[in-house]
Design goal:
The protein is an alpha/beta fold. It has one domain (56-357): 4-Layer Sandwich (Metallo-beta-lactamase, Chain A), CATH 3.60.15.10. Helices cover 35% and strands 17% of the residues. The chain has ten helices and 13 strands. The chain has helices spanning 9-35, 52-73, 82-95, 104-120, 165-173, 190-198, 274-278, 281-284, 299-306, 329-338, and strands at residues 129-133, 139-142, 147-150, 177-179, 203-205, 217-219, 227-231, 236-245, 248-257, 261-265, 289-291, 310-311, 354-357. The strands form two sheets. It has a seven-stranded mixed β-sheet with strand order 6-5-4-3-2-1-13, with helices on one face. A hairpin with a 3-residue loop joins strand 9 and strand 10. Helix 2 (52-73) runs antiparallel to helix 3 (82-95). The N and C termini lie far apart (79 Å). The structure holds zinc ion (2 copies). One zinc ion binds at residues 182, 184, 245, 268.
Length: 359
């Protein structure tokens, strides 16, 4: 047993040099370890001593799995149960801890849910609307006659998208048309748009996006004017409202499904001048379900302008943003608590969930 006090100065000096050498060697090893983490031989026995990252990975896997179970047992509703609230806030915590960014438990969580959603899309809609929430601001609206996607993206880097190619392209294959709000990568994905176009399905994009790529990818040609596009074979009419995110064109889509209901999607609406005409949207359209970005400017005023029966917010937990602008579910909950004069329920949903709406 050595005690520091007993060591001679020479030994101490040698030890310091040794420690420096070890630290140099360790730095080299750690760089290699960043690519290929050292395997914890006791992981199977649930002993994580000396392997903190391996501990956190296992904790995330258990937490994501339990959240998935809790959400399935407590599906989206106008009134949220305490258990569902807890599950969504726990999800916020995991998704705002950068330890979990682009790690296996996160990929497993989102892809398990997306595969389940893909299977569920087989279930017919007899009456009204079914709204599926996908990654970020992506939604699919299914009626008896039509299945349309808005802002369908896989999310994440091209090298390894959050939703795997094998799932996202099957989801796209089940849709009849796609509407893209604006040019930002968390809403617009050219490969997905081409997948629609190559199957003879129409993609509507804002002015200036993907011009000349494919005749099935069509732009709103008149800016700052409302445009109506009939989709007779889908028994719906698309109304395109001229929104903006700052100065960027941001199409607001009002989808009128005959005999089923009307759904509006706001994209990344954020523009002070537009709020003036947004005030009057409810005078022109009877909107059943509004899908707003959860950080739309002048939120209470804008939501009242659309005047929907229910709201389903989008754009929470955009994982490509830094954590201060990932927009947690708990922040959306707080915002709705504060809009005391609104009186429109927000059916808060997460990736892969659905909600059936009947008039
Ligand atoms: Zn945007
Ligand atoms: Zn966005």
């Amino acid at each position: 047993m050595f005690h520091e006090g007993r060591l001679s100065k020479r030994v101490m000096r040698l030890m310091t040099v040794g420690a420096l050498l070890v630290s140099v060697v360790r730095t080299g090893t750690m760089e290699a370890a960043a690519q290929e983490p050292e395997k914890n031989p006791n992981e199977g026995n649930l002993i994580f001593w000396r392997y903190p990252d391996n501990y956190l990975e296992n904790q995330a896997r258990v937490a994501f799995g339990t959240i998935d179970e809790a959400l399935q047992a407590n599906p989206p509703q106008k009134e949220m149960s305490l258990l569902r609230k807890m599950a969504l806030i726990s999800l916020d915590q995991l998704l705002h801890d950068t330890h979990n960014d682009k790690q296996e438990p996160f990929y497993t969580f989102i892809n398990t849910r997306m595969q389940r959603m893909l299977d569920d899309m087989e279930r017919p809609v007899k009456k009204g609307l079914r709204i599926y929430k996908l990654y970020n601001d992506g939604f699919i609206i299914k009626t008896k006659d039509a299945t349309v996607a808005v802002d369908l993206v896989p999310g994440g880097p091209n090298s390894r998208p959050f939703i795997s190619d094998s799932i996202i392209y099957k989801i796209a294959g089940k849709c009849d048309a796609m509407f893209v709000s604006h040019a930002h990568g968390d809403h617009a994905n050219l490969s997905i748009a081409k997948a629609f176009a190559s199957r003879g399905k129409l993609v509507i994009a804002p002015k200036g996006l993907w011009t000349g790529v494919n005749p099935m990818i069509q732009q709103l040609l008149v800016a700052d004017t409302t445009v109506d596009v009939p989709f007779n074979e889908l028994n719906m009419t698309l109304h395109i409202l001229p929104g903006h995110q700052d100065d960027m064109y941001n199409n607001i889509y009002v989808m009128e499904f005959k005999n089923a209901g009307t759904v509006a999607h706001t994209g990344d609406q954020w523009n002070e001048e537009d709020v003036v005409w947004i005030d009057k949207v409810h005078e022109h359209y009877k909107i059943d379900v509004l899908l707003p970005n959860c950080w739309i400017n002048q939120m209470e005023r804008s939501l009242k302008g659309f005047g929907p029966k229910i709201i389903i917010t989008g754009h929470e937990n955009e994982m490509e943003h830094t954590i201060d602008h990932r927009e947690a579910y708990w922040i959306t909950m707080k915002k709705f608590e504060r809009m005391s004069g609104l009186n429109i329920p927000n059916v808060l949903m997460t990736w892969g969930e659905s909600y059936d709406y009947k008039r």
